[in-house]
């Protein structure tokens, strides 16, 4: 099994999978390929495949599944999916990614949500903070943190991190219909350009609250700033919850999890999945056993208790999870019913990789001061329409 889970919380999740596989009588070996961002992971995986080192399964996310399936490199999971009624228990938005041309090519084993604020509880209390419901509330909270000498907004210098912040700002300002139309359907309408210009203006506003040394950091560095009380909050996916759990921190006493202002009722998601590679020499019976195991409700519960995510099933019980996990499960169930469970732009769950990479470039160029708000808005519209550079 190949994967990119290398942080403490992620490695704890791999240990859970290993334990379940070994108890099921399977020999488990894994290959961790480090590095933030999936592009480097797939490059390394392809290098391994070229030398005949073919794992049974590989981690994958979002529209990358469709790309691998289109190339004919994946085995279908239709038989297991039919027998175990995946259509009934996996949220609809995830099914659209796991399937290609009506066939199951990946098994989702978690749902991470990206539109979260992770807040240091001690510093939050010290500045008399209140949960921000609106953008105005959010800026007021960041301002109080900055005045107290804190890094108000912890973030690293990777394009996907800045795009993750951008997607929450866009969802909060534009709303569900705007987000779906532009990022999922890739169909901007007249007037959307002005909204995007406003989104980029908000991104510029947030830069006043970022650590001066952010360009030397990655997401996990920002999380450590938060953990150590040097920063008030981080806008990041629920894998942060897994990192805090690995360090024995508790929600409600050490940290808080709030939805990004004005995105209440929405869940922007990233789902880790596993695909079965066609050329693996693993027997079919073992492949089916592994596929079924990854969808096992108990395994998904135990993996996600340590990784910070939640099970990729609407029938997952909430009881074992902490406050943030219970909220995430309830939010996902509600969003699945309301069709407000929507793929993360930054994590490749909203649209194909070619568009994602173009958005990365534009958002990063703007964040680094190379584009003004209007230029970034113009280029983004072009990228979503498929006519832009990159």
From TrEMBL:
Q: Where in the cell is it found?
A: Periplasm
Nucleus: is it a keyword of this entry? no
InterPro entries for this protein: Bact_solute-bd_prot1, SBP
**Alphabetized UniProt keyword annotations:** Signal, Transport
The record, for Pfam families, names: SBP_bac_1 (PF01547)
What does this protein do, in the record's words? Answer: Part of a binding-protein-dependent transport system for a sugar.
Question: What is the recorded name of this protein?
Answer: Probable sugar-binding periplasmic protein
What is the native source organism of this protein?
Answer: Marinobacter daepoensis
């Amino acid at each position: 099994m190949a994967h990119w889970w290398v942080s403490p919380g992620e490695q704890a999740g791999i240990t859970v999978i290993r334990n379940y596989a070994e108890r099921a009588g399977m020999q488990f070996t894994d290959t961790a390929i480090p590095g933030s961002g999936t592009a480097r992971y797939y490059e390394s995986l392809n290098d391994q495949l070229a030398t005949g080192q073919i794992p049974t399964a590989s981690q994958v996310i979002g529209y990358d599944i469709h790309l691998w399936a289109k190339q004919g490199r994946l085995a279908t999971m239709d038989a297991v999916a039919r027998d175990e009624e995946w259509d009934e228990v996996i949220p609809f938005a995830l099914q659209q990614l796991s399937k290609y041309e009506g066939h199951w090519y990946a098994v989702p084993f978690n749902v991470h949500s990206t539109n979260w604020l992770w807040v240091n509880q001690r510093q939050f209390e010290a500045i008399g903070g209140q949960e921000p419901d609106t953008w105005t509330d959010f800026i007021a909270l960041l301002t109080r943190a900055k005045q107290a000498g804190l890094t108000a907004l912890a973030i690293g210098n990777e394009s996907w991190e800045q795009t993750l912040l951008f997607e929450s700002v866009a969802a909060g300002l534009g709303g569900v219909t705007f987000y779906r139309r532009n990022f999922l359907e890739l169909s901007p309408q007249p007037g959307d350009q002005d909204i995007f210009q406003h989104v980029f203006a908000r991104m510029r506003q947030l830069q006043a609250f970022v650590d001066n040394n952010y360009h030397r950091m990655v997401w996990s560095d920002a999380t450590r700033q938060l953990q150590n009380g040097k920063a008030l909050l981080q806008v990041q996916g629920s894998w942060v919850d897994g990192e805090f759990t690995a360090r024995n921190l508790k929600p409600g006493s050490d940290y808080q999890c709030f939805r990004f202002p004005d995105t209440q009722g929405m869940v922007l998601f990233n789902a880790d999945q596993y695909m079965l590679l066609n050329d693996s020499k693993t027997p079919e019976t073992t492949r089916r056993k592994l596929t079924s195991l990854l969808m096992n409700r108990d395994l998904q519960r135990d993996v996600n208790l340590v990784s910070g995510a939640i099970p990729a099933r609407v029938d997952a019980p909430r009881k074992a999870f902490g406050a943030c996990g219970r909220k995430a499960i309830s939010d996902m169930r509600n969003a699945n019913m309301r069709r407000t469970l929507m793929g993360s732009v930054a994590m490749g769950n909203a649209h194909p990789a070619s568009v994602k990479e173009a958005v990365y470039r534009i958002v990063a160029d703007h964040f680094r001061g190379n584009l003004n708000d209007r230029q970034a808005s113009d280029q983004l519209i072009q990228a979503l329409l498929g006519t832009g550079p990159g």
